[in-house]
Amino acid sequence: MEASVRSPVTLPERFLPPEEHIPESFWISLRYFNLYRIALAGLFLGTALIYGDALNLGAYNLELFRYFAAGYLFFGVVFHGVLRDLRDKFELQLTLHAGLDIVAITLLMYASGGIRSGLGVMLLISLTGAAIVAPRRLTFLYAALATIALLLEQSYWVLEHDAPTASFVQPGLLAIGYFVAAGVTSWLAARVAANERLARQRGRELAMQTRVNQLVIEDMNEGVLVLDRGGYVVQHNPQAQQLLGGAGLIGASIAGLVPGFSGGGEVEIAGRDIRLRPLERGAEEFSVLLVEDTTRAREQARQLKLAALGRLTANIAHEIRNPLAAISHATELLREEKRGDDRERLTRIIHDNAGRLERLVSDVLQLSKRDRVSAAPLRLQAWLGAFISEFVANEAVPPGRIVLETRRESWVEFDHEHLHQVMWNLLRNAVRYAPAGPASIRIRLDGYADRLELSVIDSGPGVPAAIQGQLFEPFFTTEAKGTGLGLYLARELCAANRASLEYVSGMAGAHFRIRCRQAAPA
């Protein structure tokens, strides 16, 4: 069967609609503005037909006013049909609409006697409506065209009918109003459009985040219940329904689903051990309850422990095989040898390999103690001083070779025996590789916030970068007589005490750092 190949889909492409060049609100505004134009033209035409020039509309030439009003209405209807059928070239259509208003109202104003008719104010409405959806450059273009039309119309009256030149004051003031109204409206519309774009973007981001959260929650191994203030389920994921075994959880009471529920803890439902863990409440209106199947978690942990135990057992068997083979071979030769020097050499082989087996068994026994943690507050300065003295005496190290660097009194939460074993392993490695000079090994104690850093630093060659990734693997060693469990055991003991052991690269010499919890003084 051939597998279908699909191109990768990014999150924005998958969850978000394509971006539109012109917002739908602009087309809606243009459509309503054109309906206003049709209504205005119809009002002018109807008034002229019914009342004649009694209302001063068409006072100069009533017949011409009726023709202009009819043409204005006709083009308004045509533009409405074009606007409905053609959804491109928005700026062109808007310019045609504004131009129609300027030409039609100027002609109607001429037929009504010029600026005295008051129809010039109607251009303010047209310019304001256009400025709401037009770019700023077009807004001022429309205002300029309206001003030119207004001044040309007034110039006709001055030149043809000897109107006083002082009559230009009223058109001039009206032209200033055109520019001010267009500019202010355009600025406000730009602010509104920016807020609309921001709101639309935030809405898309929220929709995407909501969808991602929904996918994550639905795919979780744990169940999620959202409860209202009365303890009734208002939302859940499929895993919660599977774990609680209910046919329909929406509207069900948590007390009915989990008898004896008291806010959290472990219960048994349908043969499963279920742990209910409440999360942070949301403004006291709802609460989130996490439903975990601890039976499966324990089974997975047991499987991991068994797998790790199997690997460890295989490694131990491999490590024991070589010393046992050497001891067996040396014993056979010892039976056959008669000379004392050969007997002494073979006896030394048996003794060395038996010692290696003893160290291996001792390390494995220490490894078995990692789960038995008895952490207690420990004053590090005093403890480290006594520990260094003990180590120097037992390992025959010159006293000045190891120095302690500490800045302040510090307490740590750690099992005393575990810390002793960890530090002994780290110092033994440092003594093996550091030069024999004074202060070649430093134990440094730093603290910040509620964490402490205990470092063992030597001035030796350091650990090559090629093997740094294998430092804490069991049975990895570069020492012929080593077991390879020292650093592995040290890291496991640190983890059991909620601490971490790491190798710090990029420094001269070797630098091992323990990060652990700071404790209150006992």
At a glance:
Helices cover 57% and strands 13% of the residues. The longest helix has 50 residues, at 169-218. With 522 residues, the protein is α+β, with helices and mostly antiparallel strands.
Describe what you observe in this structure.
With 522 residues, this protein is an alpha+beta fold. It contains 14 helices and 12 strands. A 5-stranded antiparallel beta sheet has the order 2-1-5-4-3. It has a 5-stranded mixed beta sheet with strand order 7-9-10-12-11. A two-stranded antiparallel ribbon has the order 6-8. Helix 5 runs parallel beside helix 7. The N terminus is likely disordered.
The total strand number stands at 12
What does the average pLDDT come to? 78
How are the strands of the biggest sheet laid out side by side? 2-1-5-4-3
Order of helices and strands: HHHHHHHEEHHEEEHHEHEEHEEHEE
Largest sheet, in brief, is:
5 strands, antiparallel
Please tally the helical runs, counting DSSP H or I stretches of 4 or more residues: 14
Structural class by sheet pairing and helices: alpha+beta
Query: What oligomeric assembly is this protein in?
Result: single chain
